[in-house]
Amino acid sequence: MKNPMNYIQNGDYQIPDLKLSEQPMKPLGKYGRMRKAYLKEHRPILYNQLLMSEKLYPHLIEIDETAQSRLEQMMPQLAESAGATEELKASDPMKWVGLMNTCKAQAEEILMAELINS
Known about the structure:
The protein is mainly alpha-helical. It has five helices and two strands; from the N terminus they run ββααααα. A two-stranded antiparallel ribbon has the order 1-2. Helix 1 packs across helix 2. The longest helix is centred in the middle third of the chain and has 27 residues, at 56-82. It is rod-shaped and about 75 Å long.
């Protein structure tokens, strides 16, 4: 019987010589890591399917980039609606920082619901 798979001898055992294809080594950002943790914990079948088909890393990179761009789009709108203006930044920096932190928390909550945990 001819087997096209290569094996490596390790003691008395023959172990399949499996190798993944080369993938670009761009580090995952915050949202990509959060998506990976979500998939691993709550959607293990999907996580394993993406991992075995070598589509996990591109999926995580796409989620990370999408989340970053959506955050950049939402922050000015949320800051404007909250009243975090440049005048406020100059007159009361602590209040401005508090408003900006609130806006970022709101934006991240939206991203979590729409991209990360879906």
